[in-house]
Design brief:
single chain, 228 residues, mainly alpha, 10 helices
Length: 228
């Protein structure tokens, strides 16, 4: 039932599932037109698609008849019940107050679709970051940092609601460092627990530790060869 899916909207990450379920539910509700017509045509997109879940027959039905007025009110009642406990209700409150189910639906789609797509992009960015690791090579660190900052900039472009906070950047950066020298790895939890270090400062600390380690190693090999 739709009522059991309200959590989808409150979570803000399952809009497309909720939308599909809602359209299916409306397809089970008869239209005042009679015959095989259902309320589904009331929430059809503005432009005719004639494909996928939207048939040409659903676009043939006029939105200018007395039957549409009845159906539109029924959709408004349905959406009021489906949305009243979600964070989207205020967005469509005025349209539902006028019993305009179609307007409420189009407003909801316009808002939620954009939010859901942005959330999907944010999740993809997180996945890319989690697949992106630094594993101890000297020349690879700067490339690693450049790519991390690139992914963070993509999230920033999605808007303030999807940008990473400074603490998130710092934590994600530190978690993606693997297989470094023991002294470098020992530094990571110290930086993680010290709130006085932000993302850029952590980069500097880790970078210096890596450089120092390679300088020590280079000096060691230099002395070894000189002693031969």
């Amino acid at each position: 039932a739709i009522e059991n899916k309200k959590a989808y909207l409150n979570m803000g990450i399952q809009w497309f599932d909720w939308k599909k379920l809602t359209v299916y539910k409306l397809q089970q509700m008869p239209s005042a037109l009679g015959g095989n017509a259902t309320l589904k045509y009331v929430v059809r997109p503005e432009l005719q698609s004639g494909s996928g879940p939207w048939t040409n027959e659903e676009y043939i039905i006029s939105l200018e008849t007395p039957y549409f007025k009845i159906d539109n009110e029924e959709v408004a009642i349905f959406l009021t019940e489906a949305l009243k406990d979600t964070r989207f209700f205020d967005l469509v409150r005025e349209a539902l107050g006028k019993s305009d189910g179609r307007l409420a639906w189009l407003q909801l789609v316009g808002h939620a679709e954009s939010k859901a797509l942005s959330q999907q992009r944010k999740e993809k960015i997180i996945h890319e970051i989690e697949c992106h690791r630094y594993e101890g090579t000297y020349n690879g660190f700067h490339k690693f940092i450049s790519e991390m900052k690139y992914y963070f900039s993509l999230a920033e472009q999605l808007g303030d609601d999807y940008d990473f906070e400074e603490a998130e950047k710092k934590s994600m950066f530190l978690r993606q460092i693997y297989k470094c020298d023991a002294s470098v790895m020992a530094l990571l939890p110290k930086l993680e627990s010290d709130d006085s270090f932000d993302f850029e400062q952590c980069i500097e600390k880790v970078s210096n530790a890596i450089v120092n380690k390679y300088e020590q190693r280079r000096e060691k090999y230099k002395r070894k060869w000189e002693s031969i």
